[in-house]
Write a structure and sequence with these properties.
Layout lengths: L3 H10 L1 H12 L8 H7 L9 H7 L7 H20 L23 E4 L6 E4 L6 H4 L4 E7 L1 H4 L9 E7 L7 H17 L1 H13 L5 H11 L4 H24 L7 H12 L3 H17 L8 H9 L7 E5 L1 E5 L1 H5 L2
Length: 327
């Protein structure tokens, strides 16, 4: 019997066929052959409430986005068992989204965003933003946003992408961490941890944090850092002039003072570390911790190859627009 990793590799090889079969199922084509698996997966081992309409009318009831995700998950597992992996010996696949991974027998997540490209995921650690998820995930983009406006609902998968677990991290933030990790480690392990903490906790809608991120991106280039601090000062004046015209509160002076202090520090790298550390402490107090031993050991060897956007609002918000819009 193949291992979970072996099954995931086989799925990746057969992924295009899998999506074809999933779309057939969403059209109600040969749905009866999936019935036994859907019956087993259904609540109290009953067929899901949408099954008969999909089988008989080739449409789905008017469903909310979360329920659409459940439909996709159930049909996907049924397609895997009945069609895609039917030629090899596998256990009956379970769906278990409440316990961390959607398909535990494959250690695989499945997400079904629509053309807003976003999903909400449980928050475990801020360092997921750099390290990614514990599990690989298949992301299937549906046309739900368009189709729900014209009932009855005829849903299709229009794009898909398989992500390795480390790719489910923030593209821009991991790129900065990857670029500077080795150099930072030659300077100081503590400095490296503080920079990584800033990258993990940054609120990219915060004015000072956005400029700090640009400066950290150039942390090995002293001349460029000076220019970026000057640009931040110009932007500070410009933004406050705009805010004054709109009768909005000004960005406080201490925000720009924190950035100006970088240019005066010796060495300038220490000024950046202190500015990043101060921002984290001011905004998160004791909540923002340094990476624990496990996270740190993983950060040292991780490919830091995030491919998505990640922001935090009670839960993680995964944004896949970068991947799907480029295809």
């Amino acid at each position: 019997m193949l291992t979970k990793a072996g099954l995931r590799n086989l799925l990746r090889e057969r992924l295009d066929q899998t999506i074809v079969e999933l779309n057939h199922a969403l059209q109600g084509v040969n749905l009866e052959r999936l019935g036994p698996v859907l019956l087993r997966l259904g609540r109290s081992q009953t067929l899901p409430h949408w099954y008969e309409q999909l089988r008989d009318q080739q449409t789905l009831p008017n469903l909310d986005g979360k329920t659409v995700g459940s439909v996709i998950e159930m049909l996907f597992v049924a397609v895997l068992e009945t069609v895609i992996l039917q030629d090899i010996k596998i256990p009956q696949l379970r769906l278990n989204p409440a316990r961390g991974v959607d398909i535990p027998d494959l250690d695989l997540g499945i997400k079904a965003p629509s053309q807003n490209y976003a999903t909400s995921e449980p928050f475990v650690s801020a360092y997921e933003r750099l390290l990614g998820s514990e599990y690989d995930a298949l992301i299937v983009l549906t046309d739900y946003q368009k189709r729900k406006l014209h009932p009855p609902l005829k849903l299709q998968v229009i794009q898909w992408h398989y992500f390795l677990n480390t790719e489910l991290a923030d593209f821009a933030l991991t790129a900065i961490a990857r670029k500077h990790r080795d150099w930072l480690l030659t300077q100081s392990e503590t400095w490296t941890q503080k920079i990584f903490r800033f990258l993990a906790y940054i609120n990219q809608s915060d004015w000072r944090a956005k400029h700090l991120l640009r400066i950290i991106g150039a942390i090995q280039e002293a001349d460029r850092i000076q220019r970026l601090v000057l640009e931040a000062e110009i932007d500070f004046r410009k933004k406050n002039e705009q805010r004054a015209r709109k009768d909005k509160d000004a960005i406080p002076e201490h925000e720009i003072e924190s950035l100006l202090s970088i240019a005066e520090a010796q060495p300038i790298t220490l000024g950046i570390i202190d500015a990043a550390d101060n921002w984290v402490v001011e905004n998160y107090k004791d909540f923002a911790r340094l990476p624990n031993e496990n996270e740190w050991n993983r950060l040292l060897v991780s490919p830091l190859n995030g491919q998505i956007g990640m922001s935090f609002a009670l839960q993680w918000r995964y944004n896949f627009a970068r991947v799907f819009r480029d295809n």
